[in-house]
Amino acid sequence: MANTAIIGGGIIGCAIALHLLENGHTVTVIERDAGGLSASVGNAGILAAPEIDPLARPEMLLSAPKWLLDPLGPLSLRWQDLPALTPWLLRFLLSMRPARTAAARSALLYLMKTAEADHLKMGAMAGISGHIRRTGALTIFDTAAARDKAFSGDEANARLLGNNVEKLDVTEARRRIPALRGDFAGAIFNDGYQTFEYPLTLLRRLQGVLRERATLVDAAVSSVEQARDGIVVVTEAGKRLPFDRIAIASGIWSRRFVADLGLKVHLETERGYNTTFVDPAVTLEMPVFFAEHGFAATPFEKALRIGGAVELARPEAPANYARAAAMRRRMRRYVPDLPEEGGTEWMGRRPSTPDSLPVIGLHPRDPRIAFAFGHGHLGLTLAATTGRHVARLLDGENDTALAPFSISRFGAG
Ligand SMILES: Cc1cc2nc3c(=O)[nH]c(=O)nc-3n(C[C@H](O)[C@H](O)[C@H](O)COP(=O)(O)OP(=O)(O)OC[C@H]3O[C@@H](n4cnc5c(N)ncnc54)[C@H](O)[C@@H]3O)c2cc1C
After folding, report:
1. Cα separation values, 20 from 15, 224, 229, 254, 393, Å
2. Cα(148)–Cα(404) distance, rounded to whole angstroms?
3. In angstroms, what is the span from residue 195 Cα to ligand 1's centroid?
4. CB under 6 Å to ligand 1: residues?
5. Stated pTM of the model
6. Domains of the chain, CATH where assigned
7. pLDDT tens, position by position, 306-355
8. Centre of ligand 1 from the C-alpha of residue 333, in Å
9. In the structure, how many helices (H) and strands (E) does the chain have?
């Protein structure tokens, strides 16, 4: 069977590796920072199946200017990075056209419909169960009008996905989550959301399985070369490693390999921040989204994580942890018992495309190479589904429903 390499050992790379092993490949995962704190380690841990709407929607044009005025708000732009981000931002604006939004939504729906089942199957492949809790999630709103507007969209999505949503008043929301003692106007409960075990634990467990069943190479890849009899992965230390097939799953850093392979992609980072409290004094019964402020709080077994927001910036720009503090401050309005100090702050890089669709597909001229990156806000949710599709594609199966995720949509290199 094929000797296949995956560049990147984040959640997407691990999911591809497990599926390829299942299909009989000899698998090597090449990861430059196996103990690191990538996006796959610090995310909010939510299986966000209801989120089938792309970020680029016409209504963004109404909210974005207001948000951009607040340097610590839900959406910020590092202005000195504007020249580097401009091509992505222009594509983002073009993606807001109603026909494109509708197409992105149905493409995401296709992936989301199997997200939970794929995760359960992947867990079984890795010998892991009980890692996803059926919690649902609560979204709270500052005005009843905002809740009612959101409810109609959530209801429409729930009909497509077959889950339930409920409109709640403040009393009922507090009955379900007593810590919400601050002021708000109402809430929506959506049972389509689920909560993973602590993301660091999940990733380390998957990497542990791969250590036993595959080869994990601790190296930074500097380039990828196409040869007649295989694909050569070149490491920064100068090693040349030949493989039959490869999958590129290096998050935001995938774009350098796309260029090596003569193709083009618009991929930038939506950076997010959070704070994690271990053994927190506050208990939440399920994740809570503070929708109008662009962040969420997720309860894990022994931790509470508060974070989110979007900062458009170059991946290597210095972190601004004032954003994490701003979210804690805002949350205390709703959950006054949240401690002021004591948590651990983190910044992560969501690898994002302008149309909110991940790149999942083969190189248009070389079926030995697969791409799997650009999952933005949904990489944990869609990891197992991506792994299943990529393994099928590398084994020569075709799926026309994956056409919207092709790298060809970005044009020639
Ligand atoms: C604040 C925040 C909250 C989030 N919450 C959620 C959530 O609740 N639910 C959800 O579904 N998603 C969530 N996400 C998104 C999710 O975390 C990402 O989409 C996902 O982790 C991306 O995974 P990845 O494997 O593509 O990338 P990464 O996790 O970035 O992994 C890429 C890996 O490639 C390696 N690599 C890169 N270059 C090289 C090289 N040259 N050589 C070798 N190795 C290399 C890196 O070291 C890294 O380990 C959140 C993200 C953030 C920032």
Report:
1. 9, 20, 20, 20, 11
2. 32
3. 17
4. 7-13, 30-33, 36, 38-40, 43-46, 48, 220-221, 249-251, 253, 272, 274, 307-308, 348, 350-351, 373, 375-381
5. 0.97
6. 1-56+97-134+194-267+354-413 (3.50.50.60), 58-96+135-193+268-352 (3.30.9.10)
7. 999 999 999 999 999 999 999 999 999 999 999 878 899 999 999 999 99
8. 30
9. 12, 21
